[in-house]
Amino acid sequence: MTNLQGKVALVTGGSRGAGRGIALELAKAGAYVYITGRSRGLSHDERHKGTIDSVLSEIRAVGGEGEAIRCDHTRDSETEAAIRRISSEQGRLDILVNNVWGGNERPIESKPFWELPPDHWSHMFDAGVRAQLMTNYYAVPLMRSTRNDGGIIIHTTYWDHYKYIDNFYYDLAKNALVRMAFGLSVELAADRIAVIPLSPGWMRTELVLESLDTDEEHWQEVTELQASESTAYIGRAVVRLAADPEVMSITGIPQQVGSLAAKYGFTDVDGRLVPVFKVPE
Q1: What is the pLDDT of residue 47?
Q2: Who's near 36: CB < 8 A, 6+ residues apart?
Q3: Tell me, what DSSP letter sits at residue 225?
Q4: pLDDT, tens digit, for every residue of 41-50?
Q5: For domain 8-264, which CATH number applies: 3.40.50.720, 3.50.50.60, 2.40.420.20, 3.40.50.300?
Q6: What are the backbone dihedrals phi and psi of residue 178, each rounded to the nearest 5 degrees, phi first?
Q7: Which of 172, 215, 225, 276 is most exposed, with the fewest beta carbons within 10 Å of its own?
Q8: Tens digit of pLDDT for each residue in 17-60?
Q9: Which positions carry the signal peptide feature in this UniProt record (predicted)?
Q10: Containing H/E element for 169?
Q11: Domain-by-domain residue ranges, the chain?
């Protein structure tokens, strides 16, 4: 198993989806994992949806360590307070996974720009792009102050060689995250902090499973999910990137989970090497 013992990680938007999968895999690899999100509690309904507390329980169940911090990343004061707490408790931050995203508040429809609701902007940019930007703003000084063997920042996004993603706002927001990572990679190169925009494939998030009336135990019965990947798959990609001593060679360059699986030799939870998901031509 890849060893991240002694590393401190923060996964934003860690209550479900890719964030949950990444947090669990980092914890299994030995990192101390902070997870942030807005939902708390362990009631039956909240456990079904996923909360930062339920994910923290999962982390501890697999022998991992970490803490849950309730944080609305659209509120700068809460983001600053979360980073201040990590600094106070750990004095360092080695791995930052910028995964917070508010872009699914509305269905992402395939319609022309002029037929789309303008509030896609606030969902995808205020609760997505800007939220990730401000997390960087408060976290980067702490990461730079660590002064050990560098660090890594991951931006979860979607990217397929700059092909159009079929929703104007979604395409714009996801490519903004790619460009944000590139700019940071230039500015943090001297600190040996790699910045990677990371693109998963067709993930079986809780939202996807619910929309197809299935669950993680029965997804193989659903035709539409045959080429899908678990949220652990992107988590395993993050772990390999964080442990790669040569990761600076790809800083700023968009990466796809399927390609990293082939490069690093990991598989999904069912033993498959799931290939890169391609934007339909």
Answers
A1: 41
A2: 10, 11, 12, 13, 14, 52, 68, 69, 70, 71, 73, 82, 100
A3: G
A4: 764 444 445 8
A5: 3.40.50.720
A6: -60, -45
A7: 215
A8: 999 999 999 999 999 999 999 887 764 444 445 899 999 999 99
A9: none
A10: helix 168-187
A11: 8-264
Tokens 């999100």 — which residue?
A: 37
CB 19 within 8 A of CB 230: no
| CB environment 91-111: b (16+ within 10 A), e (fewer) | ebbbbbbbbbbbbeeeebeee
d(CA 235, CA 3): 14
Are 14 and 23 contacting, i.e. CB atoms less than 8 angstroms apart? yes
Tell me, what DSSP letter sits at residue 228? -
Give the Cβ contact number of residue 139 at 10 Å. 23
Tokens of 131: 């939220």
